[in-house]
Structure formats: C-alpha cells, structure tokens
C-alpha cells in the first residue's frame, strides 16, 4: 500500500505531499521524504557511481526504512517525485508505471495557466487524481 | 547443531560453521513459530516471558555468529539480507505489554551489534557494490551498507524502549507490580544463554532456583531503570549524524541531530537541545519544509521558556505563527503531542493562538511552560525586548518593511515623497503603537504614532522633543495586506539619504526593528514564496514597486558664484599662454575657497602624461604644462600671502581663494605652456562654503577647450652661387630622388634660404632670425653669414605670410655628415598692448646634416646680364681644375634658333692641375626677350660625368634695341648708394 506521495521542487522544497495512511504520521512521512532527497542528490550528482542513465527519470529504490520503502523519480525539469510504500516487495515495473501516471497528473496540474511554476500545488483535481492513482495501485495490477 | 557449528568454527571451517549456524537458526525459528502459534501456552520448561527472552538471546547469539562469518567472508549483501530476515522475523515478537521494553531493547541491540560488525569489517566491503544501487538487480541502497544507518536505527529502538519503560513506570498499575511487590534478590544469568536464575543460599549450599515470570519482570524493570538510556541514545545519534555529515547526506544528518536534540530536551539539557534544534531548523528553513520546521520551533520555543529567554521565545513564536501551514489538517489527534512535540499539530488555530500568546506576553502577561508549570517568562519594562530583522532573517514573514522615495534625486531643503509599506503574514491583524523611521541622516528621522496612543506616547517621548512626530489614524497590519504610509522627507545635507530601518513598537517594552528594503530589490518571503498567493505590491504605483529605492541622492545646492575662464585665441606652441580666470560671487559668499585646475587631453586618454612619468626628471614628457597660477595685478608680497595653499604639478594645480563677499571679484592668471601641438581641456573647479560655518561645500565647474598650434613652420633650401656649378661626384653617382641629402662643395660658397611661414591665425612679429651653431668650439668647420632677406627688424608676419632669411654657407672641411646648427627664430605675438619687456619666444629648428666634399671641377658661366638684338656678346665657359691631376674634358654647345655663335660645336681639351680652362664663344642674339643660351655640356672623361648648366643659369634677356633709362641724378645717386650697400 502506498503510504505517501510527494512532489519536491528544484530547491528541494515540498510542492505536494499527501499521506494515505489515515493515521497521524504526517511528520514521520515528511521526515522520510526529506531524508530521501539525500539519496536523490547522491544519485544525480554521482551518475558514474550508478548505472542509472540520466535519460531515465526513474531513480529506483531510494531508502528503505524499517517499515517503508521510498522510490524516486526525477522529471526533466528536475522536479522530484517520491512515493513511500508499506509493501516491502514491490515490482519495479509497477512503480515505474505508477510514476508515469503520477508525472502525467503533475504535468496536467502545472499546465494550468493559473498555476505559477515553483509554487505549491493546491489543485483539488490533482489531489483527487493522485488519490485515484494511489487507490488503483496494487502490485501486479499494471503491466 | 550449534555445537557442531562451534566445533567447525574451531576447526576454521568457515563454510561448514556457517551452514550449521544457519541450520541452528532455522530450527530455532521453527520452534519460535510453533511457540507463537500455541500462544506460549505449552511452555515446557520456562514461563512464557522468560521463554521469549531465551529465544531472543539464542537467536541473537546465532545471528551474531552468522553475520560475523558472512562479513568476514566479504559477503556484505548476504549479511545484510540475513540481518533483514532476522529483523523481520523478530520485530513483531513484542511479547506482553509489561515486558515490551525488553523487546525494543533487544531490537536496538541487534542494530547496534550489526552496525559495529559492519564498521569493523568496512574494509571488506567491495567498492563495486555501490555501482548498482537503485536498480532492479540490487535490493540494497546507499545507506544500507553504512554503519550510520544501523546506529541511527539502534538509537530509534532504544528510544522506543525508553518510551515503553516510561509509560510502564508512569502508569505503575501493571498486573505484575500488583502481584509481586518485591524485586527478587541475587538474580544472575544462568549457565544457559538467555536464562536467569536466583541464587538462594541455604546454609553453605548455594542453590540456583528458577524465577517466576512476575519475579523476572520485576527484576528486568529494576535493571532497566538503572540504565541511563538517554545518554546512549544521544551517543548513537551523534555517531550516525557525524557519519552522515561525512557522507554528504545533510538531511539524514539533520534528522539524527533532531532526534539527538529531542533526547537532550528529554534529559532537560535545554542549552544543547536549543543549539541542535537551531542548526536543524536552518536546513528546514532553507528548503521550505514547514511541517518539520514547525516541530523544531515548538521545541525551541519550549527551550527558550526553560532558559528564561523571552526574546527567543517571542522570535520562535512569531516565526511559527507566520509560517504557512502545509496541509490543512485541523483535527487534533491525541497522540500528536508525542509526534509533534510541544508545538502540537500545525494548524491555523494553533498559529492564531501563538500570535495572541505572544501579543499578550509583550503586553505584560506571563507565559508558562507547557512541560513544566513552574517555569515562566515575562516581558517587563525593566527588561524590554527588541528583535532585529534583517534581510535574511526568517522573521521577515512577521514584518516586512519596504520603503521607497518617489524621486531619484532631490534638491536640498525641498521635500520629497516617501512611502513606507509594511506587511505581515501573521494570522491575525496586528496593531502597532509606534513606528520609528531611521535614516542615515539623523535629522530626517521621524516617528509615526498611532492616533489612539498619541497622548500617552507624546508623554513618553518628552525627552525626545527634536524628533519630528507624525500621527496616523491607526497602524494596523492585516494579514498579507500592505499598509502604506506616505510622508514628506526633507534633507538639508547633500549626499546620500538612505532609510536604514523601521522600528515598530508594540506595547510598552517590545520593539521589532526591521531593516528597510527597496521595493526594487526585495527578495521573496521565505516559505510564502511557494504559496499560491495573490501577488501584491508594496506601493500603489506599480512603477515604484519595481524601481523604487530606499536611497535618494540629495543634490548639492546650486552654486551662486561665477567662474569665468577666457581664452581669446588658440595657444601657440612655445609661448606661455595666459588664461585669465575670474571668480565673481553672485549670491553666495565664498569661504575657504579652493580652486583646482586640471589639464586633460581633449581627445581622451586622460592625463597629459602617463602616471609612470611623474618623476621630476621626465618633465620633458609633458606636452602641455601648467607653469604658474598668479594673481592678477598683485605685488609679490600679497601673492605669497594669498597663495597659502598652492600646489602645482605639470597638469594639475590647487590654489586657495581668499574669502570673498558679494560684489568682490578675484582673478588670477593661469600660465600654460604647450610643448607639442595638442588640444587640451582646461578644467577649473572652485569648491567653497557658502557661509563661514562648517557646512556643505558647493562646487562650481568650468571647462574650456584650448587648441595648441604650431605658430611658425620653417623650411629651408640650399642653392649654388649664380652661374657656378661644382661637380660633386657622389651626387652624380647617387640615383636621382633616392636620397634627400644635401651636397655642398668644399670651400665653395653656397646659399641657404630659410623661410618662416606663419601657420597660425594670429599676426606675429619676427624679431630676429639666426643660425646657431651647435658646437661650443669657437672654430666652426664652416662659416655662415647672414647676407640678406626680408628686413629683420620686427617684421610683421600676417597669418600665412612668409619671412625669408638668406645665409651664405662655406664649408671648410670635407665631411660626410656636417652639422650646420639650427635656425633660431625669435618671435612674439603682434599685440597692440604687448608688454615692452616681452622678450619673445624662440622657435628653434635644427638644420639637417649636409654632405661636404671636394669638387674636382667647377664650371662657371660668364656672360653679360643682358644683350641687345643683333649685337654680339661674349660667352665664356670656365672650367677650373681643383685637383692635382691632369683633367681631360670634352665639351659641346648645341644650336638654338635664338642665337648664332662662332666657335666649335664639340671639342676636347686638357686642364692642367690647379688651372682653368676657358672656352669663349661669341653669340649674336636673333630674338628678343628672355632667351635660353645654347645648351652647353661639359664632360669629364676621368670621372665619366657630364655637367649641364641649369636653365636659369643660362637664361639671358635680349633687348630689341639699346634700352634708355632716364634716371634723375639725385635718384641715381640714391640707387647707387643703395646698390653699394
């Protein structure tokens, strides 16, 4: 199950962060997402250390905590997408396709002429769409 | 199985040992599952609590062995996988609530042990491991191979243990504590791993008795209480934090710092906690993580109360109150205290509460600590609080001040509009009692008082009477709405006027001082820049919002003194050119005046010399030189007196100007000398004070472009004497036009004509012209005599006019490079009012060197000055041999239509040494007028050189008949007298 999704801007500032656990663990998830940015920095700044080519936006598993796993995705405009799952065994393809949908939703949200780039995403439609994607996410459901 | 493994290990059969340890671990795991399935009811030997403890202890032992062997063999990935499996197997095996702390303690120990194992075997970790993190092939990530990761988790679980233990102790009504009241004595570890037993002494016999679970729990509790977990937690976090910092993972490091700070807070070490929270929050501020910052600020707020720092408390509270809340979760959850610390859940209502709390504090109420009711802070008159907000302070969100002058420059003494805009992001409107605006010119400072507070404020400011006070109907700052106040500001002092800061006073003893910002260069607010707010402008005029500045230039007062510079004509090179300068006060009086004169190349290039040439020896490099500044019509004494300051350099001069009243006049002469023709800008600037008191100085600037021109151009020509032609061999040999050298014959008189032409625009007077020898010796290798020319007595040279001097030159030595000296022309301007003592200017021009050589043959022609048609006359061609050799010559005379002659057309002859050969012809002119004599050619066979007399030398005027000149006798005498001169 997905515990949390987040969009992080250029200056590593949170643009969107939504928790889906129902419990009041927002702070914990904020910490997890924030710490995951270190791994993204590490992977982006040392591309030769990792086989991830820069053309690929999917950054893979970033950060395992005891009960969560964090996956990352980097857009061409250096906007970071993160997802925190409670499933400890998730297929890479599932996560990839999840990120693709998430990214598409983000692109649609920032294409809104009233959205100022770099500001927080406050669109309700985006929120609804993201929670839809999250609800539909179940390991093995995507090809 | 484990025994077999130990034996294998003993035999150094690592693979075998590992296999058996794994086998033993698996068997234990199965038993655990079975036990768990039967809810520990079928416990065989031990009571359930102790049974679990034993299983954990055995598992730990086996796992320790396995991971040591794996890491020793460099199988890091496998070891980590094993660890994860180990952790996942046991993490849910919490056991009863009363002994859950044992579980967390054990878990923490697993992480700690593994971290230490990793650390000691870090050399065995292959570097290639890191290359495929994040890929499907690797389930590992960067931090999982770092001991810091495990240290941090160990600390986390230890913290969990501490929470459980604290909960247990605070409730204190557990079943076990009720049933068994007493902590059993003499408990010691049993011979079997993970078991405890009680020693009971019965006489001399020491018996080991098993414990009941209740006894064991009491024992474990009492043991746990003895340990200071907090210190260990802090140590673990510090270790992790340091490693993460080294690994360039600032966020993970700050997470560890955050946890560490919380632990310090728990142990009531507020100073250390505050220090750590401060560093952590700066990262969160920088990256805009509101929720994380909120949590840290909540702790900081509490630390400030406990440290009795009202200022810090206000700062942190105001910052929290002005933070934009990330998510709108308003529902308060009971557990949020543990999660968020003393700050509670970030919400709009919390922000509002914080603001009102701070406002009540600054208005005199006490604030009590949330964690310790005995601790409180207050703001009193004796200890006022002042907060400074600069452009990088997070408190800009609380109060942002933007100031703009409506103009870019202003005359001194005239008012300029000044808009002061304030905005606050606090959740509720805030009322300010007084605003104090501070400028870099303290005379401009003023205070704006809230009209409601006016009376009391006026009373409190009684000691500050000279500060201008304005009143505003109300100074209320609504959330995110600019409060704009416009006033006039007047400055008498020229220079920069800058608004430095604006201090807002709220209550009697609280001030917040904000550095003023220009709207044009205002940074976005931290945090709020990511919020989708409507953009607002500090001023109503959008142009001012984009370009407004907090600085204005106060201009100098207009000078009321005339500075007159005059130059009637262009300057001439060589003369001392005088520029009169006059200072006439019109409206101002001149005190401590100082006049600066500067000469600058008008075509750019700055100074008239390069700075490197400033040494006095190279003054010749100055093309234009300021010679002196002298008072007009003053005698020497007063000059010395008035020129108190007088510094003159080649292109710069400073001179002091005496004090002048209106109606006075002061003038001086600037003497400037041009060495080269150059166009020069003359800058004169007069700085003075309009009154005798030390006040702003006023400057008057004037400039004048003066052309420097060459007054006279001198040219010269050498000529041979009339009808005399020496043979100069080198001249014959040289190619025509190849060189411009002048050849003169030795011991022959040549004529030098010097022409001076006035190339300026002013009439000049030539006083004398002469040729000066360069050599100091009395005997010169040549003789020069002035033989004539235009009258040399002060002859007037109009612009474009020429003056000619004629000199005879007779070289006395044979030299290929004979210096003839230079032409010296003494001249002055033809001024009607010229001073009698004016000695004139000498222009000197060097004559080029000449080549002097002995001429072997000299040809001279002799014939009368005129002829008469039809009447014969004699024409002699004389060739004199100057050598000691016999010279053979050939000569010929061509036919012309104008003359018939008798004598040979072609002939040859020999000339004896030092002798002269004369050819004589009788010619009869056939035409009248100016006629060319027959062309004579004389060829020297020895030198293979031919001489052709020049056309002018062979021209004769033929009269048609005998001319009759009638000249009166007296005139004849005059003419004769003149001719004889």
Automatic annotation (TrEMBL), chain A:
InterPro entries, per database record: Sedlin, TRAPPC2L
Pfam families the record matches: Sedlin_N
Record-level GO BP terms: endoplasmic reticulum to Golgi vesicle-mediated transport
Superkingdom assignment: Eukaryota
Signal peptide: none
Any Gene Ontology CC annotation: cytoplasm
Similarity section: Belongs to the TRAPP small subunits family. Sedlin subfamily.
Descriptive protein name: Trafficking protein particle complex subunit 2-like protein
Native source organism of the sequence: Zingiber officinale (Ginger)
UniProtKB/TrEMBL annotation, chain B:
Organism lineage string: Eukaryota, Viridiplantae, Streptophyta, Embryophyta, Tracheophyta
Domain Trafficking protein particle complex subunit positions: 51-322
PANTHER family: FOIE GRAS (PTHR14374), TRAFFICKING PROTEIN PARTICLE COMPLEX SUBUNIT 11 (PTHR14374:SF0)
Protein name: Trafficking protein particle complex subunit 11 domain-containing protein
SUPFAM superfamilies, alphabetized: TPR-like (SSF48452)
Species assigned in the record: Zingiber officinale (Ginger)
Source organism, top-level taxon: Eukaryota
Pfam families in UniProt: Foie-gras_1 (PF11817)
Coiled coil location: none
Residues spanning the signal sequence: none
């Amino acid at each position: 199950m997905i515990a949390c999704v987040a969009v992080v801007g250029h200056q590593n500032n949170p643009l969107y962060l939504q928790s889906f656990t129902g419990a009041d663990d927002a702070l914990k998830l904020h910490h997890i997402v924030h710490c995951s940015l270190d791994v993204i920095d590490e992977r982006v700044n040392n591309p030769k250390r990792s086989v991830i080519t820069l053309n690929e936006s999917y950054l893979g598993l970033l950060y395992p905590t005891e009960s969560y796993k964090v996956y990352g995705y980097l857009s061409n405009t250096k906007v970071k997408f993160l997802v925190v799952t409670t499933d400890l065994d998730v297929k890479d393809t599932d996560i990839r396709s999840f990120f693709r949908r998430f990214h598409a939703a983000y692109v649609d949200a920032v294409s809104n002429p009233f959205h100022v780039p770099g500001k927080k995403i406050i669109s309700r439609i985006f929120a609804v769409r993201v929670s839809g994607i999250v609800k539909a996410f179940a390991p093995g459901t995507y090809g | 199985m484990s025994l077999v493994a130990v034996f294998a290990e003993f035999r150094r059969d690592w693979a075998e040992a590992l296999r058996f340890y794994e086998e033993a671990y698996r068997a234990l795991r199965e038993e655990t599952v079975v036990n768990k399935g039967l809810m520990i009811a079928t416990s065989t030997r031990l009571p359930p609590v102790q049974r679990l403890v034993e299983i954990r202890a055995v598992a730990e032992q086996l796992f320790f062995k396995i991971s040591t062997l794996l890491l020793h063999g460099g199988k890091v990935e496998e070891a980590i996988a094993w660890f994860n499996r180990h952790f996942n197997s046991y993490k849910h095996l919490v056991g009863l609530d009363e002994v859950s702390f044992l579980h967390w303690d054990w878990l923490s120990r697993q992480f700690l042990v593994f971290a230490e194992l990793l650390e000691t075997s870090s050399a065995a970790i292959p570097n290639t491991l890191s290359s495929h993190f994040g890929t499907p092939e690797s389930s590992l990530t960067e931090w999982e191979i770092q001991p810091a990761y495990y240290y941090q988790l160990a600390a986390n679980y230890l913290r969990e243990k501490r929470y459980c233990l604290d909960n247990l102790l605070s409730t204190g009504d557990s079943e076990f504590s009720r049933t068994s009241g007493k902590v059993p004595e003499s408990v010691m570890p049993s011979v079997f791993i993970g078991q405890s037993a009680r020693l009971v002494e019965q006489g001399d016999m020491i018996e080991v008795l098993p414990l009941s679970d209740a006894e064991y729990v009491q024992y474990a509790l009492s043991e746990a209480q003895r340990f200071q977990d907090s210190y260990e937690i802090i140590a673990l976090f510090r270790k992790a934090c340091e490693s993460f910092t080294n690994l360039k993972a600032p966020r993970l490091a700050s997470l560890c710092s955050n946890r560490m700070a919380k632990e310090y807070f728990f142990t009531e070490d507020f100073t250390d906690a505050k220090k750590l929270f401060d560093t952590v929050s700066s990262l969160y501020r920088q990256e805009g993580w509101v929720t994380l910052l909120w949590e840290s600020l909540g702790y900081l707020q509490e630390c400030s109360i406990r440290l009795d720092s009202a200022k810090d408390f206000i700062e942190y509270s105001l910052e929290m109150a002005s933070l934009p809340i990330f998510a709108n979760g308003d529902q308060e959850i009971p557990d949020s205290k543990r999660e968020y610390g003393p700050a509670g859940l970030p919400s709009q209502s919390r922000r509002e509460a914080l603001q009102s709390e701070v406002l009540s504090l600054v208005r005199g109420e006490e604030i009590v600590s949330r964690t310790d009711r005995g601790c409180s802070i207050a703001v009193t008159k004796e200890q006022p609080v002042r907060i400074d907000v600069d452009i990088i302070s997070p408190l800009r969100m609380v109060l942002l001040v933007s100031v703009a002058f409506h103009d870019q420059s202003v005359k001194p003494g005239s008012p300029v509009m000044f808009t002061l805009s304030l905005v606050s992001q606090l959740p509720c409107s805030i009322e300010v009692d007084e605003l104090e605006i501070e400028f870099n010119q303290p005379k401009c400072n003023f205070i704006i008082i809230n009209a409601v507070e006016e009376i009391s404020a006026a009373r409190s400011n009684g000691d500050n009477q000279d500060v201008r006070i304005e009143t505003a109907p109300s100074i209320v700052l609504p959330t995110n709405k600019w409060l704009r106040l416009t006033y006039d500001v007047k400055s008498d002092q020229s220079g920069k006027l800058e608004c430095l800061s604006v201090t807002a006073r709220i209550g009697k003893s609280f001030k917040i001082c904000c550095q003023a910002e220009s709207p044009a260069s205002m940074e976005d607010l931290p945090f709020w820049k990511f919020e989708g707010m409507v953009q607002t402008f500090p001023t109503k005029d959008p142009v001012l919002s984009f370009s407004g500045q907090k600085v204005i230039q106060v201009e100098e007062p207009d000078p009321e003194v005339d500075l007159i510079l005059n130059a009637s004509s262009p300057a001439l090179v060589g003369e001392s050119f005088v520029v009169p300068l006059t200072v006439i006060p019109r409206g101002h009086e001149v005190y401590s005046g100082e006049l600066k004169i500067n000469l600058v190349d008008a075509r750019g290039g700055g100074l008239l010399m390069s700075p490197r040439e400033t040494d006095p020896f190279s003054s010749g490099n100055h093309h234009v030189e300021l010679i002196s500044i002298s008072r007009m019509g003053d005698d020497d004494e007063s000059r010395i007196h008035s020129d108190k300051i007088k510094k003159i350099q080649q292109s710069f001069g400073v001179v002091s100007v005496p004090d002048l009243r209106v109606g006075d006049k002061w003038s001086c002469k600037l003497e400037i000398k041009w060495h080269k023709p150059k166009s020069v800008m003359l800058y004169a600037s007069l700085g003075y004070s309009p009154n005798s008191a030390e006040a702003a100085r006023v400057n008057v600037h004037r400039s004048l472009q003066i052309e420097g021109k060459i007054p006279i151009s001198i040219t010269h020509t050498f000529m041979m004497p009339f009808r005399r032609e020496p043979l100069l061999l080198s001249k014959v040999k040289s190619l025509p036009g190849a060189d411009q050298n002048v050849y003169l014959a030795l011991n022959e008189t040549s004529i030098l004509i010097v022409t001076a032409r006035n190339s300026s625009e002013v009439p000049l007077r030539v006083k004398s012209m002469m040729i000066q020898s360069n050599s100091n010796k009395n005997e010169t290798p040549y003789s020069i005599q002035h033989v004539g020319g235009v009258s040399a007595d002060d002859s007037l040279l109009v612009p474009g006019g020429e003056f000619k001097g004629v000199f005879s030159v007779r070289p006395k030595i044979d030299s290929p490079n004979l210096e003839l000296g230079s032409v010296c022309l003494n001249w002055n301007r033809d001024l009607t009012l010229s001073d009698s003592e004016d000695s004139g200017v000498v222009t000197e021009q060097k004559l080029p060197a000449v080549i002097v050589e002995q001429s072997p043959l000299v040809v001279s022609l002799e014939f009368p000055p005129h002829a008469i048609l039809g009447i014969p006359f004699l024409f002699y061609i004389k060739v004199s041999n100057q050598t000691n050799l016999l010279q053979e010559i050939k000569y010929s005379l061509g036919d012309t239509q104008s003359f018939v002659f008798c004598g040979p057309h072609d002939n040859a002859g020999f000339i004896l040494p030092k002798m002269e050969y004369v050819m004589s012809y009788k010619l009869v002119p056939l035409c009248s007028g100016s006629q060319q004599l027959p062309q004579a050619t004389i060829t020297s066979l020895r030198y293979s050189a031919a001489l052709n007399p020049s056309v002018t030398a062979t021209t004769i005027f033929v009269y048609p008949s005998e001319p009759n000149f009638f000249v009166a006798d007296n005139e004849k005498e005059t003419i004769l007298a003149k001719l004889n001169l």
